[in-house]
Design brief:
Elements lengths: L5 H24 L14 E4 L1 H4 L7 H5 L23 E3 L11 H6 L6 E8 L12 E7 L4 E13 L4 E13 L2 E23 L5 E26 L2 E24 L3 E23 L3 E21 L4 E20 L3 E3 L2 E24 L2 E3 L5 E20 L2 E18 L4 E19 L2 E11 L10 E3 L4 E3 L9 E13 L3 E23 L8 E24 L8 E15 L6 E2 L7 E11 L4 E8 L3 E6 L2 E7 L2 E11 L2 E9 L2 E9 L8 E10 L3 E9 L1
Length: 693
């Protein structure tokens, strides 16, 4: 049952788990640690294939998951490449791609092609950390020959629905050149079973509805990559095309007051992108890197909603694009009496644009809203200079200064506007190896969030009568962050990590109510609009660890755990009362137990994840989403290096969305009703077979 009482049990468990991890690290520290491999630089830890052999990895992603203390970060989807990269490099460089996720790129690299993986701290080896505490560098063999794989998967839900998938990939790496191609396809369907109840302020039930619907989807993607020598350097060219389509048809049976509500939604998305990266060595030990990127995305959506009280339809088309050109120059290390200094400088120019056209119909008549036809463009330049100072063998400092200049223009039915913004974004990171396999990292940084182009367009919720207008005159939030991170590695697979961060936010975006006459109207009406509403603060803390269980009676066993706590504070722009930021969850956790059995060529994994509990605040609504924890068990059998067979089960949980509508902005109006929507997601069993060649 969904509820808050589970958090008390979780907190108690976290305290106990943290104590066990700390005690175990002391016990295992007394046993001589088996370092993966020797390295000349104490801030670089190389992991050779022999380290991973007992785990029988199939891909580079499998190897990354076995590195002690390393937490994979796939990066963000913000516009531009600056500040969005993940924490894994391939041959010292980041792939110039967007939709091709870093995890997917790594899953296409066979483990047999990996020469070693270097875990880098403090910018050692001239690596651009981009603000990350730790980075993994996957170094491939120069001539790995021809390889590939076919993976077929099948998922069966507890509704009796099958969801098939297939992946094909092939690589050729020879004479310093490589070609990589892949194709993925998945499809399926799912029955939707929800129960919706609406309560009036006096407690009476005014509506009971059972949602009986179905959801169908299909996804396909093809990628191609070429790498090789060009004009005295090396070039990587990649291309991707992606298709995603979905269809939903549902009927709400109204047990009270009677009748039916029908809803249909048909969505199609096409995306294509191409990227190019060229790098070469220059005289005096310098290195030049140039990157170019282009993407186009087309989204079409048609939604219908028919009730006993009204009918509506929304037709929308959104065409968007992104163009990026960047260059970076690394200088030869500068040796001084105070230690070695690495310097790098560069600049990026990005053009993003979105054309949105939306047609609303209410009871068969057109409905015009401010922002239903909008074009938004952002031309942004970000230049940077980075210096990494190796003050001592166990102490390094990275200083980074970025300057961002952008011009945002918006034109459409919400009005025309042009805004020029500029921000200076410094970052200072200090990494101190206080003892072998014990590292402290301190960071202070200013960052700037990116504006969502959705804030410039109109929105309509016909069931509640709430409409939103676009606002072309907003600024992104700025964040000052200070953080500390402690990492301790012990034994062969053990680790303990503690992190704390404090953030101070300015120009936070919030939603308020304005009254104005809509296009074609004669009287003012209320509209929700996004505006800069003030500041906020956020505290974040995370404890995570991996505890080998060999000394605890489970040979090959590994216990993993993570708990994260965050607490934010801001002034509600509607009620002027202090509250946390929308969509934030105070506490989340995960636990895992795995075991590797080399003799049987079997490995299994059991994982549990906390549910969700978050609130969202809007001028005339207050909503809360809650779900119970979920669990998953998987088992993999690898009879030989070419075959991998995986099966498992995913146990879903009930979720609940509670929604309260007010007749005026919160704090002024009274509740109209509270609606509770209970959803029952299907549990699944799945199996996949991979054949490598």
């Amino acid at each position: 049952m969904v509820g808050l009482d589970r958090y008390g049990r979780v907190i108690s468990g976290v305290v106990i788990a943290a104590s066990i991890f700390a005690a175990a690290s002391e016990v295992q520290a007394q046993t001589p640690a088996s370092p993966p491999a020797a390295a000349a630089d104490p801030n670089i830890t190389p992991y050779l294939p022999a380290f991973f052999a007992e785990f029988r990895p199939v891909t580079a992603l499998d190897m990354i998951g076995r590195i002690p203390g390393f937490q994979f970060d796939g990066g963000t989807t913000a516009r531009g490449f600056a500040g969005t990269a993940g924490n894994v490099l391939i041959d010292g460089e980041r792939p110039p791609t967007r939709s091709d996720a870093l995890s997917t790129v790594l899953s296409r690299i066979p483990a047999s092609q990996v020469l070693r993986i270097d875990v880098v701290r403090a910018g050692a080896g001239g690596i651009d950390m981009q603000g990350k505490s730790v980075v993994a560098n996957v170094i491939r063999k120069p001539d790995a020959g021809i390889s590939g794989a076919v993976t077929s998967g099948l998922t069966l839900t507890d509704q009796g629905v099958f969801q098939p998938s297939i992946t094909l990939q092939a690589q050729r790496q020879r004479d310093g050149r490589s070609v990589d191609g892949s194709f993925r396809y998945s499809s399926g369907s799912q029955e939707i079973k929800n129960v919706r109840q609406r309560y009036l302020p006096d407690g009476r039930v005014s509506l009971i509805a059972i949602d009986d619907g179905g959801f169908e989807y299909a996804n396909g993607e093809a990628t191609g990559v070429y790498e090789g020598p060009l004009a005295g350097g090396r070039v990587r060219a990649n291309a991707l095309i992606n298709y995603s389509g979905s269809l939903y048809q549902g009927a709400d049976i109204l047990l009270r007051p009677g009748g039916q509500e029908f809803s249909d939604s048909d969505s199609v998305r096409w995306r294509g992108e191409a990227g190019l990266r060229w790098s070469r060595s220059l005289p005096a030990g310098m290195n030049l890197e140039l990157v170019g990127f282009q993407s186009i995305t087309d989204n079409d959506n048609d939604s219908l909603y028919d009730t006993p009280f009204f009918s509506s339809r929304t037709l929308s088309n959104q065409l968007s694009g992104e163009s990026i050109v960047s260059g970076a120059l690394k200088f030869a290390p500068l040796t001084t009496g105070l230690g070695e200094i690495d310097l790098e400088a560069g600049s990026e120019v990005a053009l993003n644009w979105v054309d949105t056209e939306t047609a609303y119909t209410f009871d068969g008549s057109p409905l015009l809203l401010p922002g239903d036809d909008t074009r938004v463009e952002e031309l942004r330049n970000e230049s940077f200079v980075t210096a990494v100072w190796a003050a001592r063998p166990n102490l390094s400092v990275e200083a980074n200064l970025r300057y961002e200049l952008s011009r945002i223009t918006a034109a459409g039915s919400a009005g025309d506007a042009e805004t020029t913004l500029d921000y200076l974004k410094p970052r200072l990171t200090a990494t101190w190896a206080i003892a072998p396999r014990n590292t402290l990292t301190f960071k202070a940084e200013k960052s700037v969030e990116q504006l969502s182009f959705g804030a410039f367009t109109a929105s309509a919720a016909f069931s509640t009568g709430i409409f939103g207008r676009g606002n072309p005159d907003i600024r992104p939030a700025q964040i000052w962050l200070t953080s500390a991170r402690y990492e301790r590695l012990f034994g062969r697979q053990g680790s303990f990590i503690a992190e704390y961060a404090y953030e101070s936010l300015d120009d936070v975006l919030g939603v308020v109510v304005v009254h104005e006459i809509p296009p074609g109207g004669t009287t003012p009406r209320p509209f929700n609009v996004t505006r800069n509403v003030g500041g906020a603060t956020r505290h974040r803390g995370t404890l995570s660890g991996r505890l080998p269980l060999d000394d605890w009676g489970l040979e090959g066993g590994l216990l993993t755990g993570q708990v994260s706590y965050r607490r934010s504070s801001t002034i509600d722009p509607v009620t002027l009362v202090d509250r946390r930021l929308s969509g934030e969850q105070d506490l989340s956790w995960s636990l895992g137990l795995s075991r590797n059995l080399p003799a049987q060529r079997i490995s299994w994994n059991l994982s549990l994840n906390s549910g969700q509990d978050s609130r969202n605040y809007a001028p005339s609504t207050l909503s809360r989403f809650r779900s119970d924890p979920t669990g998953q068990f998987s088992l993999t059998y690898r009879p030989d290096p070419k075959w991998s067979i995986t099966g498992g089960v995913f146990v879903s949980s009930e979720s609940e969305n509670e929604f309260t509508l007010f007749d005026a902005p919160r704090g002024q109006g009274a509740p109209v009703y509270t609606e509770v929507n209970q959803s029952f997601s299907p549990s699944q069993v799945y199996a996949s077979v991979r054949r490598s060649f």
